[in-house]
Each structure stands twice: as C-alpha cells, then as structure tokens.
Write a structure and sequence with these properties.
It is built from eight helices and twelve strands. By secondary structure, the protein is of the alpha/beta class. A five-stranded parallel β-sheet has the order 2-1-3-4-5, sandwiched between helices. The longest helix is centred in the middle third of the chain and has 20 residues. The protein is globular, with a radius of gyration of 17 Å.
C-alpha cells in the first residue's frame, strides 16, 4: 500500500522488458508503481488503483493508447505521459488531443522519463495551490479563467490539457513578449534541453488547432509569443 508521501503511478506498456525497467526505476525514485500490459487491463487497474499519473504506451493490443486515454480522462482526469514509437507530428497531436499532457518518443532515457514525470506532478501541485485565485486573463478573443482552469474562445469553451493550459497561461502573462523555447521548457516542463524543444513546438501546434492559428506567433529561431490584440 502506498504511504501518504508516495505518488502512485500506473505504467501501461505491453513490452514486458520496458515495463519492468520503468517500474524498477520509478520504484527506486520512491513511487508506488502498478503495471498493466493492455488496454482493458489498464482501465481496470486505473479504476482500482486511482493513480496520480499514468505512463501510457501509444500502441497497445486490443484497445490502443488513444482510446484508453479518452476513457481515463472521461472517468477521472489524470496527468498522462504518453510513450510513442511514432515520431510523426500528426500522431503526437492526436495523442495530445485526446488528453495526454506530454509525450516522450521511444527509445527514451530513464532520466528524461523521470524528469518529465516530476515536472507533470509539480504542475498538478501548483494548480492545486493556485486554485483559490479568481483571476481572468483576456487576450483578444481568448479568455483564461485561472481559478477554474478553463479557456474560452469567443465564448466557446476550448478543451485544453493541463500542459496546454499552463503553456497558454505562461504566454498570456506577457502578451507580445517572445519566450524562447528553452525558457518555456524550463518554466512549464521543469527542465531545459535543446534536444527537447520539439516538445514545445508540438504543444504550440495543439494550441493553435484548438484556439485558432492566429493566437500564438512563431518567431523563427527564437520561440513563441501570444499575439497582442
């Protein structure tokens, strides 16, 4: 049984070698870890264990990772870090679109996996601490309710993941200011590695798809800025 200090993580991976390696590393990091090897098993373990975070393989036998993610988020929203062997942008955006908060492409280093897990959990903790805030940020047609973590575009609600919301909020703190990719990685993901800046790019593309292509401006070779109305 997990102690009050332990965070519970569900690892969903059909490759037993990878699943065991991830489990051992996360246990060594102090997490309480549960493992499932397919989609149906993942949903059963999710309902029973009520994990704080899910590490979810994109390609699973039976129900694939996308459908598993959809059902988990519909039942009880949870941070999801998706593992994918598919490097195509479309596949990444589809994963983010169904509720994954972040992704990491196979093969991956355990150090990066652990860093991303800690970063996701820190974001959840910060969101909880800021839940008492009653601020609403408006930038053009976009309205950001920071207390309820809801976003509206011309009155219609946009369904953002935790990471997308945190990224949008960071950009909205200073509309028009250009944020370097490395700075956004540090501020939102909790680490800064030049090789990981594609993560920022993918989330910006997801934001544009949900909020409109004109909301976030690219400054080539530098980073991104929220367009000032």
């Amino acid at each position: 049984m997990a102690t009050p200090q332990q965070r519970r993580i569900l690892v969903v991976e059909d490759d037993a070698t990878i699943a065991n390696a991830v489990r051992l590393r996360l246990v060594a990091e102090g997490f309480d870890v549960r493992v499932a090897g397919d989609g149906e098993g993942a949903l059963a373990a999710y309902a029973k264990a009520e994990p704080d975070l899910v590490v979810l393989d994109r390609l699973l036998p039976g129900l694939d990772g996308l459908e598993v993610c959809r059902r988990m988020q519909a039942a009880r929203p949870v941070p999801v870090l998706m593992l994918t062997a598919l490097g195509e942008e479309t596949d990444v955006l589809v994963g983010l679109g169904v509720g994954a908060d972040d992704y990491i492409t196979k093969p991956f280093s355990m150090r990066e996996l652990v860093a991303r897990i800690h970063a996701l959990l820190r974001r959840v903790e910060r969101a909880s601490l800021l839940a008492h805030e009653d601020a609403v940020i408006r930038v053009g047609d976009v309205e950001i309710n920071t207390a309820e973590r809801r976003v509206f575009v011309r009155g219609a609600e946009a369904q953002l993941t935790r990471t997308e919301f945190d990224l949008l909020r960071r950009l909205a703190e200073r509309p028009g200011q250009v944020f370097e990719r490395e700075r956004l990685l540090s501020d939102i993901w909790g680490f800064s590695e030049a090789a990981a800046t594609r993560t920022v790019d993918s989330h910006v593309r997801a934001l544009r798809r949900k909020l409109g292509p004109e909301v976030v401006r690219t400054v080539h070779g530098v980073g991104y800025a929220l367009v000032r109305p």
